[in-house]
Batch of 2 targets.
Target 1
Amino acid sequence: MAHRWTNDLTHDDVTPERAWLNRRQIIAAGGLAGLAATGLAPRATAAPEGLKPNTWEEITTYNNFYEFGTGKGDPAENAHMLTTSPWSITIDGLVDRPGDYSFEEVMEGMTVEERIYRFRCVEAWSMVIPWNGFELADLLDKVGVKAEARYVAFETALRPDEMPGVRFPVLDWPYVEGLRLDEARHPLTIMATGIYGRDIPNQNGAPIRLVVPWKYGFKSIKSIVRITLTEDEPPTSWNKANPREYGFYSNVNPEVDHPRWSQATERVIGSGLFARRQPTLMFNGYEEEVASLYEGMDLTENY
Ligand code: MTE
């Protein structure tokens, strides 16, 4: 891909979290001395104007991770039960080098950078999150994608002993998601392993989760254990649960309302007691970067 992404959102300069890298990545790189050599150099990114990231507290206590319960506070309360180390991801399907990759093997050769992204949940709330992660395209290149592959399927861990929420048939477990291959390869699509330079907390999808900032949050699947390259469009959890309300694409679109509520505006998390609402932006503000992916498509049909 030609261009590299430059953050258009700014950091709160007074934040104590300004550490940029997560410990686990530093360990994976062989300590601090190995950082420069592996391209894990901290990258300060600032834009003159923009939104401020939400606080660590907001990002880590108001979550959707139904494997740990459906309440917004349930993941923060229960996700500590998830064992995230050791961790491995099975990468299979239409790839040249299928296999079970340990977390450390996945990280090898990846360039971790900070991406300050808008995050818009389909429930019409939003945050700004400073992720640390690497481009999914780099991982796909590492395993080698076969020419016939057209989609990427993702799967979350399913561990009834560690996930109290999976006793309830809210969704057809395990949680699964999918992207078209060109969406997966887009430079904005990252695999996140950190927030504010710390290891990503369990409630946010440790040790590794997808982040696709121009799509509704449910596409950004957490705690991934399998990535499969396929020829056919893979099933996705929310679409299976309610196909009329949740499509495969799920691009943020203020003009296409959810059948039960408007998507024109969003509630800004952290904006106080009388929460501020702001207009929702087409493709969540990333129109310039991603609109070309959907040229000629009817976005009302392909919701
Ligand atoms: N991934 C899994 N495995 N299980 C989930 O319930 N919820 C999704 C998404 N990924 C979910 C998931 C939804 S609806 C949203 S809005 C985001 O995670 C929330 O991410 P956050 O808690 O890090 O803000």
Target 2
Amino acid sequence: MEWEQCWLNYHKVDYKTSPAFQHIYHNSDDCRVLSAVQELKTGLSAMLDITPFSSNQQPERTQQSIQLVILTDQLDRYGLEGYEIALDGNNIKILAATGAGILYGSFSLLRGIAASVPLEQLCGIDQPSAPLRMLNHWDNLDGSIERGYAGNSFFFQDSNVLVNSRTRDYARLVSSIGIDAVVINNVNVVNDAISLVTPRYYDSLKKLSTTFEAYGIKLFLSLDFSAPIDLNALETADPFDEKVQSWWNRKMQEIFSAVPNLGGFLIKADSEGRPGPFSYGRTHADGANMLARAVAPFGGSIIWRCFVYDCQQDWRDKSSDRAKSGYDNFMPLDGQFLDNVALQIKNGPMDFQVREPVSPLLGAMQQTNQILEVQITQEYTGQQKHVCYLVPMWREILQFHTYCQANNDRVEDVISGKTYGNQLCGMAAVANTGNEPNWTGSDLAAANLYGYGRLSWNANLSSEQIASEWIQLTFSANPSVVRAISDILISSWPAYEKYTSPLGIGWMVNPGHHFGPNVDGYEYDRWGTYHRADFEAIGVDRTSGGTGYTRQYFSPNFETYDDVDTCPEELLLFFHRVNYHYILKSGKTLLQHIYDTHFEGVDDVRRMISQWNSIHGLIDETVFQRTLERLNFQLEHAMLWRDEINTYFYRKTGIRDKHGRTIVS
Ligand code: GCV
């Protein structure tokens, strides 16, 4: 096998109740049900050494069977994607109102068996938290991947769309964690990607979307707003121009008839140089609605990104604040978007830093469908060369109280439709996959992909539960292995935060590729990402007396962030400009805290390495060695971060470390 199976390894298990499962009965030949049957056969034969046969004939009484039963009249009970697992004598029943529900139920049963959970504990009804659980791939048609750290694309090569057995294994992997929508191409739509919406690609897209359909996944494409111009059809892309509108209407008619199972389109407009409605004096709502009208007859959706900001700023100008721009651009448009438009909002107001406050736009738009966007690919969190388990960060975001109303005000409520009753909402994440044999480059980075899927399905799962599940399915159920890897994962985000940029200030990375320390890398640039450190203080005053960003939050978040005494310290420098002598709750000065955390972060990585070494011999040797190699690199690199950051502040301030440790000066 040229590629690995990650959490679908289906190791042999010594399953206590040892069910014989001679027969898999299914009452429907829906393509998702047939995928479920296939997966059950693969999983059960590998894990339990049995080879059940499948049929749509009712099982005999004496047979121990798994029964996959679609109950179309039970939509209210199970929803479009939910399922029930029930025990009935010798039989296990998976009941659902749709084929997708049967598929998710089957993956859940297999997951339970793989983790040796007793059958009784697997019983019950389960439904996803977020209706849309999307992956966004930033894959380009030449095979490269923007911010990809796991090889090249397995969707594209030399301007062709690839559909092969790896595509099917991808669909199995992501469907098994509940993903129901995938955007295959980069939001920066350039070169041949512009032509994805032309007949040149329809046959291969049809093949791909049919493969996806069998795993309950809708295909989405990123769209070029200027396609009418870039495909040489028209001289304008003005959404108010009737020629433009009818061009899009015809285009959508054409592509939806040629490519079944197409969910719709994702658009990055007027953002970092991408074309958009601003060029014609139109709003984002004007642009999105034009496309929404064109896809509506086919049940399609338009997902419009809110990553809109001025990327031509002057660092000398302290009045402009990039953090404010998402809210400033979109809030005035609340209520203007059509029902089949959803706004995709990055988790923070800047750009996937190791620590950011939750975007104030989430929850604020009461009459607009919202999707939370997170980043699995570790652009700013170590590029898969550092272990950084991101599930705890995403959990914090989902649990955040926006105070947009008295109840059901957490981000999780907003994006699951509980707050405002939306149907089109959910989560999207930038994928971390590529064509490396282990899919994610770093073996431990697969925990983030797995964790994203599981969390978007069930926002109540804890980071520890998800980690332990993933470790058991991927590596081994040996308690020493589970404990060691789980400890590494759980300590990794805090460690990364400690040895990189402090207290929510972000950035301090090398420009362009964003890897490694460079404290002033973006300081005098046009991107609006400044720390403004001088010899006395650091941080940006975003309070009501500063840029006014804090005012974008509902009360009491506004007051909490606005006051330096109540602002959560992990975000102190995001919201406030603070003197190096400022005393933190720990009793330490700000500067001493910076020094200390940078030493601690490196020690944390040392501890991770010894934990990893403790499982030598208990997991596959190749995986052990290649991960050890990455961890050793991480240690070196964490030391570089520590020394560059600490030296920078020592040179700025001339204040020594209280503990007299070596700061390279
Ligand atoms: C796909 C950041 C990244 C870009 C990315 C952009 C976005 O700026 O560095 O690579 O572009 O975000 O989310 O659109």
